[in-house]
Amino acid sequence: MKREMARGREKARGKGHWAGEEGQRRIVLIAMLCCIGILHAQESPTARWYDEPQYEPAEHQVDMRHMRLEVSFEPEIGLVRGTVTHLFSPLRARVDSLFFNAPGIRIISARANGASVPFSTTSEGVTVHFSRPLHWDTVDSVTFVYEATPRRGIYFVGWKDPTGRSRKQIWTQGQGIDNRHWIPCYDEQNDKLTTETIITFDSGYRVLSNGTLVGQRRNSAGTTTWHYRMSHPHAVYLVMLGIGKYDVEERRSRSGVPLHLWYYPEYPERVEPTYRYSAEAVDFLERETGIPYPWESYAQIPVQDFLHGGMENTTATVFGDFFLVDRRAYLDRNYISVNVHELAHQWFGDYITGRSGRQSWLHESFATFYAKLFLKEISGEDVYQWERRREQDIALRASEQNLFPILHSRAGSERVYSKGSSVIDMMRYVFGEDAIRRVITHYLHRHAYANVETNDFYQAFQDVLGISPRWFFEQWIYRGGEPRYAVSYQDVTARTGQRRTDVLVQQVHETNDMVKLFAMPMVFEVHYRDGSVDRTRQTVAQQSQTVSVPNPAGREIAFVLCDPGSWIIKSISFPKSFAELEAQVMGAPEMIDRFDALHALAGTPAAVKKNLLITVYARERFPGLRAEVIRQIGGDESPECRALLRRAIADPAVEVRSAALAAVDRIPEELRLSFEGLVTDSSYALAASAMEKLSAQFPHRRTHYLTVTKDDRGIGNQMRILWHRINAAGGQRASLDSLVDMAGPSFEYRTRVNAFEALRSLNYLDSACVLSICDALIHPNNRLRGPAAEVTGYFLQQSAHRELFTAVVDKHRWTDWQRGLLAKVMKPE
Question: Is 0.90 surpassed by the pTM of this model?
Answer without folding.
Answer: yes
